[in-house]
Design goal:
The chain is an alpha/beta fold and 206 residues long. The chain has one domain (2-157). It has helices at residues 159-166, 172-191, 195-205; strands at residues 2-6, 10-18, 21-28, 33-41, 44-51, 56-66, 71-80, 85-96, 100-109, 116-128, 132-141, 146-156. The chain has a six-stranded parallel sheet, with no helix packed on it. Helix 2 (172-191) packs antiparallel against helix 3 (195-205). The longest helix has 20 residues, at 172-191. It is globular and about 60 Å long. It starts with a strand and ends with a helix. 27% of the residues are buried.
């Protein structure tokens, strides 16, 4: 397991995982304001966010474009040990062509913790013929003075919509790519990326 310390700072962190199997333990310093965005393709990745310093504000955005028999497994473990912290996890997943996606989120807020906000947002788009989708949140909240929530949405893109896009002289691959980019645009907008960061982000998706 790789141990990563996020020092007290305000920054955006971009990372791409492709055909990887890795575990990370992330320990943010106090007064950290971090936006972490990642693209995960055909990988098995585990993130353990160990929140042990106050005044930590973390927003994580994961884009999972799983197509053509890809297998993606993402484990997110968030353990709050101190008060006055916030962690938002946002996952947008797209599955097609016999791809499978497994997402596990484990949240633990320890006793006597106050002024903590933890949120998981999941949106999964099934293009067609997805093999397996599993989204499992597990919340253990031992303190009453906190906010912890989970929101999930799963929708299917019909073959009729793809046919309509292809009837406008788009190949199947370009139609899928347009759908992926429309969802990645949501991440770029939320992160308020500048033009250079947007260019880097989109180049990693292609």
């Amino acid at each position: 397991m790789q141990k990563i310390f996020w020092k007290n700072s305000e920054k955006n962190i971009l990372q791409k995982f492709e055909n990887e199997e890795e575990k990370f333990q992330i320990i943010p310093d106090s007064d950290s304001n971090i936006k972490f965005w990642a693209i995960i393709e055909n990988s098995q990745i585990s993130f353990n966010f160990d929140i042990q310093n106050e005044n930590t504000n973390i927003e994580c955005y994961f884009l999972i474009p799983a197509i053509k028999n890809q297998n993606v497994k993402l484990d997110i473990n968030t353990n709050f040990k101190v008060s006055n912290t916030k962690v938002w996890i946002n996952v947008i997943a797209l599955a097609s062509d016999n791809a499978s996606i497994t997402l596990n989120w484990n949240l633990h807020i320890e006793k006597d913790i106050k002024n903590v906000e933890a949120k998981l947002y999941e949106e999964t788009l099934l293009l067609w013929n997805a093999k397996y989708i599993s989204l499992i949140p597990w919340l253990r909240v031992d303190s009453p003075d906190v906010k912890a929530s989970h929101w999930a949405k799963i929708q299917r893109i019909s073959s009729e919509r793809l046919f309509y896009m292809q009837s406008r002289w788009l190949s199947q691959g370009k139609a899928i790519n347009m759908i992926i980019h429309s969802y990645s645009q949501q991440i770029a907008d939320k992160l308020k990326l500048n033009e250079q960061q947007k260019s880097e982000f989109y180049s990693m998706i292609n």
